[in-house]
TrEMBL record, chains A, B:
Residue ranges the UniProt entry marks as DNA-binding: 50-69
Basic and acidic residues bias spans: 9-20, 233-247
Molecular function per GO: DNA-binding transcription factor activity; transcription cis-regulatory region binding
Organism of provenance: Tamaricihabitans halophyticus
InterPro entries associated with the record: Homeodomain-like_sf (IPR009057), HTH-type_TetR-like_transc_reg (IPR050109), HTH_TetR (IPR001647), Tet_transcr_reg_TetR-rel_C_sf (IPR036271), TetR_C_32 (IPR045823)
Protein's name in the database: TetR family transcriptional regulator
Length: 255, 255
DNA sequence: GAGTATCTGTTACTTGAGGTAACGGTTACT
DNA sequence: AGTAACCGTTACCTCAAGTAACAGATACTC
């Protein structure tokens, strides 16, 4: 801000000084480290940890934390992104594998359940009511999954010359169906993981099959079914540990 | 605490003084009044209202509020109960009407959607991430609806000599399916209420029908289907505006 | 009617967690 | 050598939740 830049300087902006660049990777690593600490602290003190506790868990004091996260919400958002990353790493490949419908459903469910089974605390924290509204990452995630599902369903339906208007509500419905059942299962653990997954596979396929049937189509759930130009949920879309602007520039030069 | 009671006095505890009794109804009314104010204030200032604002909205100051609610969480819990009451008033009759399966599904969905359509702000607040975890009423509500659904499904399934193990996960699944779709619809409003309800009716019946079909049974969705000793979700189970203990007795005389 | 239990309400305070200011030290680029 | 970015600290500010302490009404009990 101190050196006045001439108007056309925007063209050659890269690296006026390497000292800034040098730290980029380091900062990301540090953020990740704090996210780990936050998760550990969350496990220790429960979901109402203070920033002091998190900082202590990371072996530093509060202001250090605030150099990397603008906010408690920002930190929790990063925790959320960590969860998203974990989930999508396993879910995306499962969803995108082009096999027969039913195994595809089942392997996607297995992916999902394996993640929440492995990190139940993180999952509960992220989906639970403990984070501030700004850190809500679940909504985005669900939107993303639902969007992928919607195009998938829509394509199938159009392939059968059906009206595809139901694709979107149904996609959101299926996402909710899975999540709510997962929450319930995680709470109760009243049956094995395989059992829930099987029950869910059954109901989801039953639903899809029923809808196809309503339109006069029948599909063998275990026969490979290829679609021209299949919809893909491309890798994890948010860079997960990307740092938000942390410096508090007091009012960025309007006009 | 000042007058020492003799040991056996617990037997004849009712009404030593009518002055206590006299106010009971009044307190309930007052609480309800504050709940109204809270909802109004929520509408005005958004979901991060302060207790001062709520008090002001009710025409009083904070301490008055705290005489009726132990806590912000307590107040929000009462707001939640109000919502539950609103919902169950319409949902319970719809669910319990014994008609053919499909119209029954549809009228239940219509009931649900009409409520959230009529009170979107309340709905969003209650289901959203703004209340403290202690005020979560949605979880209970969903459990209750799912439980009713589970017995219903279970009874049907047993009537067909099917294994009823799926009833519970499916019940929770359907609840989640509806809620998530409702959230999506409320956000986007990209189709009419009737349309979502129809799509949901279709997928839910498709799912149930498919499951029955897997077991070799077929049911006409529009033919009345009576079941011996049908499961009922009995009226709204929580007294909605019941007051929690508000007096802060400083440490109840241990030993 | 005197006494009092329970409400009505107020202003002024305490508390605690989130967040910040201001300082000093270290590394490695220019 | 100079400096731009980091490392880290202690001590503070802020603001909303929640509390103390006080004073006036109403309507029951004796």
């Amino acid at each position: 801000m101190s050196k006045p830049v001439n108007p056309d300087s925007e063209a050659r902006r890269p690296a006026p000084d390497a000292r800034k660049e040098r730290w980029r990777k380091h900062r990301q690593a540090r953020r990740a480290e704090f996210v780990d600490a936050a998760i550990r602290a969350l496990g220790k003190h429960g979901p109402d940890v203070g920033m002091d506790d998190i900082a202590a868990e990371a072996g530093v004091t509060k202001p250090v934390l605030y150099r990397h996260f603008t906010d408690k919400a920002d930190l929790y958002l990063a925790v959320g992104h960590r969860g998203t990353e974990l989930l999508f790493q396993r879910l995306v490949p499962a969803l995108n594998t082009e096999t027969a419908p039913r195994p595809r459903i089942k392997q996607s469910l297995t992916a999902f359940f394996s993640v929440i089974d492995e990190f139940p605390n993180v999952y509960r924290f992220i989906t639970g009511r403990h984070l501030p509204a700004e850190s809500d990452v679940v909504h985005e995630d669900k939107e993303m999954i639902a969007a992928a599902l919607a195009t998938l369903l829509g394509d199938y339906m159009r392939a059968f010359n059906m009206d595809s208007g139901g694709a979107e509500p149904w996609a959101h419905g299926i996402v909710g169906l899975v999540q709510n059942t997962a929450d319930w299962w995680l709470d109760r653990q009243s049956m094995s993981r395989e059992a829930v997954v099987d029950y869910l596979t059954q109901i989801i396929w039953a639903a899809i099959d029923g809808i196809l049937r309503d339109a006069g189509a029948t599909v063998d759930p275990d026969a490979p079914f290829e679609l021209p130009g299949e919809a893909h949920l491309h890798a994890v879309p948010e860079p997960a540990e990307t740092e938000r602007e942390t410096t508090r520039s007091s009012g960025g030069a309007s006009a």
